[in-house]
Design a protein that fits this description.
Blueprint: H1 7-10, E1 21-25, H2 30-40, E2 44-49, H3 68-74, E3 77-81, H4 87-97, E4 102-105, H5 111-114, H6 119-125, E5 130-135, H7 150-156, H8 176-199, E6 203-208, H9 209-216, H10 218-226, E7 244-248, E8 254-258, H11 262-272, H12 287-292, H13 294-305, H14 310-319, E9 323-325, H15 330-334, E10 341-346, E11 349-354, E12 368-369, H16 377-384
Parallel strand pairs: 1-2, 1-4, 2-3, 4-5, 5-6, 10-12
Antiparallel strand pairs: 7-8, 8-9, 10-11
Length: 387
């Protein structure tokens, strides 16, 4: 196995995870998100696919005939087509795993173990291997065998109950439960690599979509357990801070305003609303009061901002050092000055994709490629077959 911190590897590294071999028995979003970010960091990722490929390849055909989801989550990987129920293919996977550093899988609960690739068995064979099992609700309890798609976990985790307006609940548009599980899996893998460097031992990692999402919802659960859970679905406003939400300017244009402390509240009253006496009004003098009297607060703010064009409101907020933002469309975001892009290769040509949100300034971005189904099957057979 490769030890990422060995001196001879360290001297040649151009990316933090160069020399790390990751094997991914994966599909859809959660595990591919994790391993794609490992590939961005320099790891070699071998993606095991069925003959028909990861079903995320079929979600759409918007990117030069390919799925936007698949392009997003699989750049920089090698595609190996195997049927692990067949002895010959299972033997090849075993050979690869004997040389691997990390094994990630998000098949249906128990499927990997039934095929002979459960984490418990693999860790006994390969003590330095880091295994990662990503599930919907964990591997124990009555929910262990439940199908877990992002939308379903948003509902089960309580996320939908705190999303939307008072009248209508809504799902979060992005696949946040999948992404959270993938993010936490990557974090745990990096921690396990450091641990292995110190101890020489691998790790058995378990993550779940439900676990990741309820972690994000910790403040709500703590309110429920120890305090009072206030009204949650309040549209484009914050349930626990005010003023912190969307307000109409002249012509109906929306602006987002976020006041975090009393200094900002006073500056909002003095310099933006031009109602200095409002800052000390007992109905809105502190955050607790403002939450209790949100309707009065919003009417006061709207009475001023609704008469001023958004461009002028932005300038007032900027001068007062009050945080603000726009409600952008996806088209707006595609032209956003903060958007960072990197080049990626596909079978149909080079495209631009969103850059990893975290990057090391000293490292250059690599032009990674999105694999076609089984593109690397022959070369991987040649490399890992027993001679």
């Amino acid at each position: 196995m490769c030890l990422v911190f060995q001196d001879h590897i360290k001297s040649e590294m151009s990316k933090p995870l160069d020399g790390i071999l990751v094997v991914a028995l994966e599909q859809a979003v959660a595990a591919p998100y994790c391993t794609s970010r490992l590939a961005d960091a320099g790891a070699r990722v071998i993606k095991i696919e069925r003959a028909e490929g990861d079903f995320a390849r079929q979600y759409d055909n918007q990117v030069m005939g390919q799925s936007a989801y698949f392009v997003w989550l699989n750049r920089g990987k090698e595609s190996l087509v195997l049927d692990i129920k067949k002895e010959r293919d299972a033997s090849l996977l075993e050979n690869i795993l004997s040389k691997a550093d990390v094994f990630v899988q998000n098949l249906a609960p128990g499927a990997a173990a039934r095929a002979g690739f459960g984490s418990e068995a693999l860790r006994k064979k390969y003590p330095k291997l880091i295994t990662v099992d990503i599930s919907g609700y964990g591997e124990d309890g009555e929910y262990a065998d439940m199908k877990a798609y992002d939308f379903l976990v948003q509902g089960e985790s309580g996320l939908i109950s705190v999303t939307g307006s008072p009248e209508v609940m809504g799902r979060v548009g992005a696949s946040v439960c999948d992404i959270a599980a993938g993010m936490y899996s990557k974090i745990a893998i990096l921690e396990a690599i450091i641990k292995r460097y110190k101890t020489g031992e691998g790790s058995t990692i378990k993550t779940s979509m439900f676990g990741g999402m309820v972690e994000w919802l910790s403040p709500w659960l703590l309110h429920q357990a120890y305090g009072e859970l206030s009204e949650q679905r309040i549209g484009l406003h914050h349930p626990a801070i005010a003023p912190y939400g969307a307000y109409e300017c002249a012509n109906g244009d929306l602006i987002l305003i976020a006041v975090q402390n009393q200094r900002e509240w006073r500056r909002l009253c003095d310099e933006v609303l031009k109602i200095p006496e409002l800052a000390d009004d007992s109905r809105v003098c502190d955050n607790v009061a403002r939450l209790a009297n949100r309707s009065f607060l919003d009417k006061k703010i709207m009475s001023v901002l609704s008469k001023i064009p958004r461009s002028e409101v932005k300038q007032l907020l900027n001068n007062a050092k009050i945080a603000f933002g726009a409600v952008n469309t996806i088209e707006d975001v595609s032209q956003h000055p903060a958007l960072r892009l990197v080049n990626t290769k596909t079978a149909e040509g080079e495209i631009q994709v969103m850059a990893p949100p975290a990057h090391t300034v000293e490292d250059e971005d690599r032009v990674l490629a999105v694999p076609s189904i089984g593109q690397h099957t022959d070369s991987i057979w040649a490399e890992f077959s027993e001679k």
